[in-house]
Structures are given as structure tokens and as C-alpha cells.
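One example copied in:
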Amino acid sequence: MSVRREIPECEGIYFITITCSSWLHLFDIADAYDEVYNWFDHLKKNGHFILGYVIMPNHLHALLGFRNTRGVSINSMVGEGKRFISYGIVKRLKVKGEHELLADLYEKVNNTDKRKGKKHGIFEASFDWKECRSDKFIDQKLEYIHANPCRGIWNLAKEEYEYKHSSSNYYQTGKQGVYAVTNYTELEDIDLTKAN
């Protein structure tokens, strides 16, 4: 379980992991992979960069380049993304008639959050992050996330580049996949401390 920690900087490259509540396969059950892409679009529109990702059935790994966030914390931006994706997942679960699952997700919300109006616990309360300060570390994280679908219990694809919801195809073949990413080496010439 990740620990709630604040990202102290307002810019930089971060490896972020968001996990579905109780490791439920909510992205898959709700067929909500595109909700993540919509969040990525929102980040791009605000001058940030999607450098790599994999969306697994129950968690998301993303390598994100944040340009100066103008005083808004990166934690808040990720929290906003989690809310945005959550609404989409709940809407899809309702359409699919997943009432028992929705009731279970309601029970995962603590009483304080229920009083604030939160109705479903889609994600774990916190997310994990690591700042990426070197190309070597970025390469390690990209190798890790791209191998996810072919590792352990998953077997979602035979080869990493075959998994649809990943940036692996781009980094291995140069062809963009379902969602276009920016090669992290392109950020070497961009001053992330300056707002867009």
C-alpha cells in the first residue's frame, strides 16, 4: 500500500502508479481504459507530457512530465485525474448494471468522505510516485511498465509491444499506439520550470 506523500516540486518527470480499490479489475470490468486517455488529454492540454504508460486491468503506471504547475501541486493534479477517471468508471458500471459491485465500492468509502459526498471508492486513497532524475532511471521504469502485461499472473500479451494499452509499441518500433506519447528525450530541450 502506498503512503500519502506530497510531491514537493511543481515540475519534473514522475513515475506514478494509481491502483484500483482492493486491486479490483475496474478498468477492465468497466472497459474504461479511454477514461485514462481522456485524463492524459487534459494534462496535455495544460502543457504537460505523457512519456510512457501501461493501463492494466486494476492499476495504471504512467511516466509524466509536468511543466511548471503554477502553484497547483502535482498531488492535486493526480487527485483531480483520479476523480475524473472515477466518475467515468462509475457511469460505465451503472450502464453495465454492476449494482452489486457499485454497492461494494460504496462500502469502501469511509464515513468522513461519505459526509463530503463521495459515493464510491474506485481507487486506493493514495498513489505511489517516484521522481525521475536520470535517463537510466527513466529507462528502468519504462522497461518495468512495458513488461507488466507479460509478467506474473497477467499474460495479457505474448510480446510487450502487442499489449494495446501501453506505450511499449512506440518505444520498441517507433510507431505510436492507441495513445500518442512524447519520447522523454524530447524534454531535454524543454525547460519544465517555465509554465506553458
